[in-house]
Design goal:
Layout (H helix, E strand, L loop, with lengths): L15 H10 L11 H14 L4 E5 L2 H12 L4 E6 L3 H4 L4 H5 L4 E5 L8 H9 L8 E8 L10 H13 L3 E6 L2 H6 L7 H4 L3 E5 L9 E5 L8 H7 L8 H12 L2 H19 L12 E4 L3 H9 L5 E2 L5 E4 L6 H14 L2
Parallel strand pairs: 2-3, 2-4, 4-5, 5-6
Antiparallel strand pairs: 1-7, 6-7, 8-10, 9-10
Length: about 325
Amino acid sequence: MARYDFASDNTAPAAPEAIEALIAANTGFTPGYGSDAISARAADAVRGLLDADAEVRFVASGTAANAISLAALCRPFEAVLAHEHAHICTDETGAPGFFGQGIGLIGLPGASGRLLPDTLTAPLAAPDFSHRQSAAALSLTNATEYGTTYSTQALAALVAPAKAKGLAVHLDGARLANAAAGGFDLKAIGPMGVDILVVGGTKAGMTPTEAVVIFDRQLARRFDARLKQAGQLPSKGRFYAAPFIGMLESGAFIERAAHANAMARRLAALMPFTVRHPVEANAVFVEMDDGALSRLHAAGWFVYRFLDGSVRFMCSWATTPEAVDELGGVLADISR
């Protein structure tokens, strides 16, 4: 039987704090469609986490959260600048274009999943041209697809020139907890000019749920109608919201992510294969040939080969030191 401990942080169970909050929410009758007291309390918890006066909505998946957010920031004949390996560019099956009725994606290069300000210079300076989709938004990801993180200053250095050119800014925070556990300042996101933020719940140890945080309140007008049309305005909205209460009010959101990050560092220290990207969050990417990967699969451990050809090992809130050490032993054996 294959083990999926390190295949993805999506394979982990939900954390006790999230489940306890769900059970507590499963009492009595409430209004529907996110208009209940539980959803309001969860939204307050998100606002407190970010120290921001923002609109908050809860949806079922990061793909939905990203795509619907980008659709709110761009018109159909416009495009989004993003890292070429960002989730919106490689793993969402055209969802931004679908929900945005044709909005485009412009992929930009950057080592280990990060963009640099110099990379934005040319696309931000590009003149409007009727034969192509001009950029109307910048999408950033923290932590990145390669397990690296932006510092607060590094992210601000990307947001500022985009805003100066009149672009909106979207931040994909599917693993925002891991970035925060690594030192990223969550309270700086709103002031630096991000318009819409996705706060990842699922990968942080919750049941399927993501928070869409709308800093620019003008964008919140009719946003619920946009969610309803997209099938993302659940009638029993309290069950999407409740896990955020459990994880945020207890402090588990950051504490559990810090554990996942620590497990990744532990695994990297045991890794007999070359680590390709800096280990700054909860992921370890290594250089491994097909023969070694096949031997690992044959030994019962399943992991993926990633976009750049490296093999990805993901840790989660539920990863144990014993599992890391066990995997480390198997990796040592197959590397010989």
